[in-house]
Amino acid sequence: MEGITRKNQDLESTLPLTISAQYGLIDQNEFFDKRIASKDVSGYFLVRKGEFAYNKSTSSDTPWGAIKRLDRYKNGVLSTLYIVFKIMNEESTNSDFLVTYYDTDRWHKGIQAIAAEGARNHGLLNIAPVDFFETTLSLPQDIDEQRKIGEYFKQLNDLITLHQRKLDRLKQMKQGYLQLMFPRNGESVPRLRFANFEGGWKQRKLGELVDTVKSYSLSREVETDEPTGYRYIHYGDIHKKIADLIESDKQLPIIQGGSYELLQQGDIVVADASEDYVGIAEPSILLERPTDRVVAGLHTIAMRPQEICPLFLYYLLHTEEFKRFGSRVGTGMKVFGITIKNLYRFATLFPEKEEQIKIGNFFKQFDNTIILYQAKLDKLKSLKKAYLQKMFI
């Protein structure tokens, strides 16, 4: 490898880059939705397509930093905290192979050897370029073998990227439909509507349409591995999407038995606490009749829809209108919360029951497609992870 220290003195590029474990070297504005780099980037490293960069910042996913090749753009600029390099001899080292090699953990051992204990500074490894280039890599001597391995993983990465883009587009489409199929502020009908439905939607308060099911302050301490016939919905599992569209109660944690008011099919359970306003009243729904006894646990509000389609209510709680309401009535500084009194004050427009059912089923089918694509993507990522473990030493 050959280190690169060329500066962007002639402002050949004004594109600030950052490293993402998923997307590689990517535009800061696209990744963070804002610019982190300073306005004057003349002192930054100028990186050209095909060159590599080592980000020494650590995280739970990248305990020894991340190394990626610039593929998306002709060039870009990086902070001088990065180590930038290129392949010295492409006749002996294949670039695609090296990209894949740095997707493994096989290079971590060399970094561990040069990163002295206590050399982390606010998550940044204190590694000098001269030491980095002294680390050894384990490569096949046969360039053709490198090339075949590199080509295989490039095709696999392209397939993963394709599925990721399809999944992202589906999620964007869903958000678009959520905006189109619920009325905007000041309007009584949505912009997009199923055929044969007419007339304006009517305003109601949420508290008029649901009954309350008792929630319990059940923390993680009540969980057990022993079968008891009892399970619960914990607010943390709602945020983690473990409890979301609950097709089977088997996906929920087992808890110790007790005397509880039980949840039923169609009940909605929301998290009444969140780290940000976006997650306030994040909902989950029991789609099927539980086989075990299921209860609402810590930091939850449980509702039993009476005059409203449960699926319609679930998706209504995902709309921008409800999120804005949550940000207005939510309380707290480090942890944001919503009370049942404030939640039930939410007033909005509702269609007749038949139209509610149509809307709820439409979005459920959409989510089924998203879940299918997510499963395909996860399978491809697992396949890649397995091959990375088996094909490198």
Automatic annotation (TrEMBL):
The alphabetical list of record keywords is: DNA-binding, Restriction system
Matches recorded under Gene3D superfamilies:
DNA methylase specificity domains
Q: Name one GO biological process term.
A: DNA restriction-modification system
Q: Which Pfam families match?
A: Methylase_S
Tell me one GO molecular function of this protein.
DNA binding
Q: Please verify whether the record's keywords include Nucleotide-binding.
A: no
> Can you give the residue ranges of the Type I restriction modification DNA specificity domain?
200-381
Family affiliation:
Belongs to the type-I restriction system S methylase family.
List the protein's name: Type I restriction enzyme S subunit
Organism for this UniProt entry = Mobilisporobacter senegalensis
